Amino acid sequence: MKHIEGKVTLVTGATRGIGKGIAIGLGEAGATVYITGRTIDSSNSGDNVSGSLSDTQLAVEEAGGVCIPIQVDHSDDEQVRMLFDRIQDEQGHLDVLVNNVYSGVQVLGNSNGKPFWESEPSFWDACNNVGLRSHYVASVFAARMMTEHQQGLICTISSWGGLSYIFGVPYGAGKAACDRLAADMAIELKQHNVASLSIWPGIVGTEHISRFVAEMDESSAADSQTSAIKEGYNWETPLLTGRVIAALAADPTVMRRTGRVQIVAELAQHYGLVDQNGERPASLRSLRFVLPFALPPLRKYSWLVPDIKVPWSLLLLNALSSPKI
User: Fold this and answer.
1) Residue among 34, 102, 171, 233 flagged as catalytic
2) Which of 14, 126, 144, 229: disulfide with 107, CB 3.0–4.6 Å?
3) Whole-number Cα distances in Å, 54 to 32, 44, 70, 169, 302
4) Whether 37 contacts 49, CB under 8 Å
5) Where are the alpha helices (DSSP H) in 151-237?
6) Is 317 a residue whose pLDDT tops 70?
């Protein structure tokens, strides 16, 4: 169903992973989807995890959408400015910005298991330059376009790492800052009818995560957490985030959500959406996820566990305690 046909959207960092899934989700809903990335064609990629703007464009078009790829290095503010100038010239408006671009995946893998002081200070920049800072820069230019037309939606892709320790100090600090960025932008944008949301996907089976799991030591899969990841328990595909953002873009009451963290699985439930496999994953704060995650025998029967959400107040109490891996 093309329920956002005619809307102009931009997804940053869409050569693969969540960004590619978001672009496809917006395309299948009828949007015109601008996508950015550094790699035009897979044959020119030096990365051992494939992905390119051309690949994403083809996937979006196969889903029935219109896709316009633009090569952009989001560490260069002038290239970003030119990107928004082009959208203004070609479309005259922008309805949805998805802040997704992120360059820290490789350095996170290289620093896995190390305390922050054993990495170079540049670890911070690798996580939060093309990431947190680039989200701010893109939002500046998007807000100029959206406030002029008194409508728009800015979705900043964050993660549960903004609430509790996951991948290390620069990662967690950056994701917490993404949540605050979305919340504070919402305050200033509200009077202009522009919504700003922080989006938390669950465990997403991206190309990088799938490769990481494939390389995991089999002997480490004995504990429940590692075995759950290895099994792909309650994984989401990148497409689910795309379908959720498309639903938000079509929701006339989206301003009621502005400034808040939005969990992909919970939005999917609210809007009646399913993932690529036809299933709907549980929220990571639902007992339906938490209990089987800790007790492997329950995973085959997770549907029997009540879908009761742990209140935010309890999650915050846990987050304020010493983080544990």
Assistant:
1) 171
2) 126
3) 16, 11, 10, 34, 39
4) no
5) 169-189, 207-214, 224-231
6) no
Neighbours of 311 (CB within 10 A): 10
Q: Tokens 């809307």 appear where?
A: 7
Q: How far apart are CA 253 and CA 124, in angstroms?
A: 37
- How far does Cα 166 stand from its chain's mean position? 16
Q: Which residues pair with 36 in a beta bridge?
A: 70
233 noted as active-site residue: no
Q: What is the greatest pairwise CA distance in the chain?
A: 57
At 256, the amino acid letter reads R
* Structure tokens given for 238: 């990148």
**Residue whose structure tokens are 């759950």:** 228
For the chain, the straight-line distance linking the first and the last C-alpha, in angstroms and rounded, comes to 42
Q: What is the pTM of this model?
A: 0.89
Q: Tell me the C-alpha distance between 177 and 185, whole Å.
A: 12
What distance in Å separates the CA atoms of residue 7 and residue 14, rounded to the nearest whole number?
18
Q: How many residues does the chain have?
A: 325
CA distance 310 to 303: 17
Owner of token pair 């089987």: 292
Rounded Cα gap, residues 57 and 123, in angstroms: 31
pLDDT digits (tens, 9 = 90+) for 35-76: 999 888 876 555 555 789 999 999 999 999 999 999 999 999
Letter for the amino acid at 284?
L
Q: Which of 205, 191, 28, 199 is nearest to 97 (CA)?
A: 199
Q: Which two tokens stand for residue 210?
A: 């799938």
* Phi then psi dihedrals of residue 203, to 5 deg: -90, 110
Q: Is 313 exposed, middle or buried (0-12, 13-18, 19+ CB in 10 A)?
A: exposed
